[in-house]
């Protein structure tokens, strides 16, 4: 399902570099979007928010620095990891000095394997379950690689939708997710599902999580959605 695949937006005006990056990211199982300038990048980001942006510094129209600043100023996009590419290390120093909020910097010419490692590292931070990590919350443990969920000593049997729902919650405990955001993340935006479906599956998830008598860790936030803890 596309919603579970890590999504990387590449903003790079040099076609050859853009294609090499996209090819390598897709070979790693990531979904990519590509923009050839800053304006297109901002548009794609609003339409289909990525988990990570690989952003070139030197771009026609809006510069990489300006894009990065806008991403980090907007609460809706602040959580997207930005890896800035620049031609010279002095530029990297300048980006740091400008406090654009970029999460990482790579100097051109870079090795593709190095850049892939940086992308994976950012994904581990922003989307831990997509890179096969084990998540814990209180006495609940979720292993994204083996799809095993336990609470205390008990192994819990979750359906695929409940599993994705729980992994989304466990990636960011405390974060309030609206029903629409959960639909995007858990079901994928290509499928039409009624928002009430979210309530049904949250109900099922709660039932399994509390089947052995533990407290219900899922919080209903009136008028907003759901949160874990
Ligand atoms: Ca460029």
Looking at this protein, list some descriptive labels.
four-stranded antiparallel β-sheet, binds calcium ion, 229 residues, 21% strand, alpha/beta, elongated, single chain, 41% helix, 11 strands, five-stranded parallel β-sheet
Summarize it:
By secondary structure, this protein is an alpha/beta fold.
Task: Indicate the topology.
Blueprint (H helix, E strand, L loop, with lengths): L6 E5 L3 H13 L3 E5 L2 H10 L4 E5 L7 H10 L7 E6 L2 H10 L5 E4 L4 H15 L7 E4 L2 E4 L4 E4 L2 E3 L3 H12 L7 H9 L7 H15 L8 E4 L3 E4 L1
Parallel strand pairs: 1-2, 1-3, 3-4, 4-5
Antiparallel strand pairs: 6-7, 7-8, 8-9, 10-11
Helix pairs in contact: 6-7, 6-8, 7-8
The chain binds calcium ion.
The site of calcium ion has 5 residues, from loops.
DSSP E strands, number: 11
Mean pLDDT: 88
Largest beta-sheet details: 5 strands, parallel
- Succession of helices and strands: EHEHEHEHEHEEEEHHHEE
Order of strands, main sheet, comes to: 2-1-3-4-5
Spans with pLDDT under 50 lasting ≥5 residues? none
Bound molecules: calcium ion
Give the radius of gyration: 19 Å
Counting DSSP H or I runs of 4 or more residues, the number of helices is 8
Distance between the termini: 27 Å
Q: Percent helix among the residues?
A: 40-55%
Strand content: 15-25%
Label the overall shape.
elongated
Q: What structural category characterises the helix and strand content?
A: alpha/beta
């Amino acid at each position: 399902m596309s919603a579970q695949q890590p999504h990387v937006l590449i903003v790079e005006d040099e076609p050859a570099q853009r294609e090499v990056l996209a090819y390598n990211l897709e070979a790693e199982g990531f979904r990519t979007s590509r923009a050839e300038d800053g304006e297109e990048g901002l548009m794609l980001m609003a339409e289909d928010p990525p988990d990570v942006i690989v952003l070139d510094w030197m771009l026609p129209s809006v510069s990489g620095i300006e894009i990065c600043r806008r991403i980090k100023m907007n609460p809706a996009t602040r959580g997207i990891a930005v890896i800035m590419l620049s031609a010279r290390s002095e530029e990297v120093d300048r980006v740091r000095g400008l406090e654009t909020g970029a999460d990482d910097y790579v100097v051109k010419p870079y090795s593709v394997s190095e850049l892939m490692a940086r992308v994976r590292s950012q994904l581990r931070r922003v989307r831990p379950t997509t890179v096969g990590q084990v998540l814990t919350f209180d006495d609940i443990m979720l292993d994204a690689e083996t799809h095993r969920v336990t609470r205390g000593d008990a192994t819990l049997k979750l359906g695929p939708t409940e599993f994705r729902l729980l992994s989304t919650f466990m990636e960011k405990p405390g974060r309030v997710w609206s029903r629409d955001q959960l639909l995007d993340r858990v079901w994928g935006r290509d499928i039409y599902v009624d928002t009430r479906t979210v309530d049904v599956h949250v109900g099922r998830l709660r039932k399994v999580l509390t089947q052995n008598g533990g407290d219900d860790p899922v919080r209903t936030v009136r008028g907003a959605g759901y949160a874990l803890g």
